[in-house]
Design a protein that fits this description.
Layout lengths: L2 H12 L7 E7 L2 E6 L3 E4 L5 H8 E2 L6 E2 L4 E3 L5 E3 H14 L6 E5 L1 H12 L4 E4 L5 E2 L10 E6 L14 E2 L3 E5 L12 H8 L2 H4 L9
Parallel strand pairs: 3-8, 8-9, 9-11, 11-13
Antiparallel strand pairs: 1-2, 2-3, 4-5, 6-7, 7-10, 10-12
Helix pairs in contact: 1-5, 3-4
Length: 209
């Protein structure tokens, strides 16, 4: 699939475009996803406060912060950010029986599809991807996962590398001429840079290559 097309599908999902050929949908425990007729699973990012409390933030501290020290071991033995793994487990249980051909995710959804796509050996495009995996050892199936990040998107840099976290799979940075302060996180920001080959650099035009 063309990476720009994947980004546009993700954006249309947020817009709830009625013309999207959706055959199945998931809305469970804060996890929102849908399956298209061509067997593409699209996974939304954080779009409810409850999602942040359940999956992204440690709220026992003031101010709240990324749950950077909360990790869990997955079924494979790999160590993951605990909130992201919880989100991915809900997605996995729903998606695996549907036998998807590919995954697309954004933000919190990008975290989940990194884990699920690699676990199912399924082509995966993740936009605005946080770091999900703790540890340097390669996880089986990582070669199926493409992460597309803006260099100036804060979400792509958490949890911190100094704590041992990283994205799963390949990672490419989109580089605007003038990076902006703040998140620069929504899909519109990503689509604009994907259309600019100077900003997109060597980001793959399609995935798998």
């Amino acid at each position: 699939m063309l990476t720009l097309k994947a980004a546009e599908i993700m954006q249309e999902g947020y817009k709830k475009n009625p013309n999207l050929p959706i055959t199945h949908a998931l809305n469970k425990r804060g996890v929102q996803a849908f399956l298209l007729r061509d067997k593409t699973v699209v996974v939304a990012g954080t779009n409810q406060l409850s999602d942040w409390l359940r999956y992204n933030l440690r709220v026992a501290t003031r101010p709240p912060r990324i749950r950077d020290l909360t990790t869990r071991k997955g079924a494979s033995g790999a160590i993951w950010h605990g909130g992201f793994l919880s989100h991915a487990e809900v997605l996995y249980d729903w998606a695996a029986p549907l036998k998807p051909r590919r995954f697309i995710g954004h933000s919190l959804g990008a975290a989940a599809v990194q884990i699920v796509g690699a676990s199912l050996n399924t082509p995966t495009i993740a936009f605005a991807s946080p770091r999900t995996r703790k540890g340097k050892a390669r996880f089986k199936g990582e070669g199926w996962v493409l992460n597309i990040c803006r260099i100036d998107d804060t979400v792509c840099h958490v949890p911190p590398e100094v704590l041992g976290f990283r994205q799963v799979g390949s990672r490419y940075y989109l580089r605007p001429i003038k990076p902006n302060k703040g998140l620069d996180h929504n899909m519109g920001h990503y689509i604009r840079l994907l259309k600019n080959r100077d900003a997109a650099g060597n980001t793959p035009l399609q995935w798998p290559r």
